[in-house]
Every structure is written in C-alpha cells, then in structure tokens.
Amino acid sequence: MDIRLSWDLFVLVLFIVIVAYSFIIGRDNTLKVILGTYVSAIAADAVGNLFDTYLNGSALFMQILNMASVNNEQEAMILVKVLVFVGFVIMFAVRGAFEVRTSDDRSGVVRIVLLSIYAVMSAGLIISIILVFVSGVSLVGGGNLDTTDNALRSISDKSQIIRLLLNNAYLIFSLPALTFIAHSLYTKE
Description:
The structure is a single chain. By secondary structure, the chain is mainly alpha-helical. Helix 1 crosses helix 4. The protein has helices spanning 7-54, 59-67, 73-95, 108-135, 150-158, 160-167, 169-185. It has one domain (7-182).
C-alpha cells in the first residue's frame, strides 16, 4: 500500500478526527463546540490584530520569532491567531461555562443523522477558520480570500480539499448557525 503524504490527506485526517471526536462527545457537546468555535474565531482574530498592533516589530519579539523560525511579522500574526483559536476552542470544549441541551423528542435515527450533520459542520467550520487565518484574511477587519498569501495559494493549487474549503469558507462559516436555528424551530421546547 503506497500512501503519499499530501495536504489533502492531512486535511482529510484532521476532518475525520474532528468528526470522530464529535461522535464521542455527542450532539449537545458538539453544538457547544460549534458555538465555542464562533466565539473563539472572533476572539482569536481580535487577539491577533491586537498582537499585530502592539507587539509586532519590537526587538525582543523579533528575536523570539527568529528562534521560532518565523520569517516575518505576517507569519507571526497568523501563528498567534491559529494558536489562540485552537487554544480557545479546546478551552470552550473542555471548560466552557455554558451548557447546550437539546430536546430528545425525535427517534434514534433522526438523532444520529443530526449528530452526523453537526459533526461534519463542526469539522468544516474549524478547518475553514484555520485556513482563513492562514490566508491572512481577518474576520473582524475584513479582507478577501482571493488575495491570499502566496504560500497558501501554492498549497491550494495542489489540494482540491483546501481549495474547496477556501472557496466556500463563508458558506461553511454560516451553515452551522443556520442549521442550529432551523433545528431550534422544529423542537417542542
């Protein structure tokens, strides 16, 4: 069996791990992760922009960047955004001080289908937000995915999955919220 490492394989494995994790934690906690992901995305973008405003360019920080093999201030901001985002998502999933409880007024098959839908949307949302951050686009400050960084552009040219996720990032970003609202309209509670 010949397995070649590629960006498609990496994204696919990450996607499968997030979906599997969603099945482990269940529908309500997956919804908690989705809601935490939205908050984490906005917070990480804001922290990255604050970081860029106040810390980027300082002599001490540039020495730390050189030791970490980060080439420029743009890469540093992207790294901070991604690390803060991942850290916040984990904190919301593990220690978030809120609870999501949906009513179980449907059959077991419908609950499994809903969990599957939410699991796929959670994975797509997390991966898409990371790719948007890597592209250098700010969710708070705006930007255009068509003007992404050349490094990400070369990766997306080689990876159909990354290209698909980037081209549909805003749809993937809005779909979980719209689905959650539609699901809420059809429950008795």
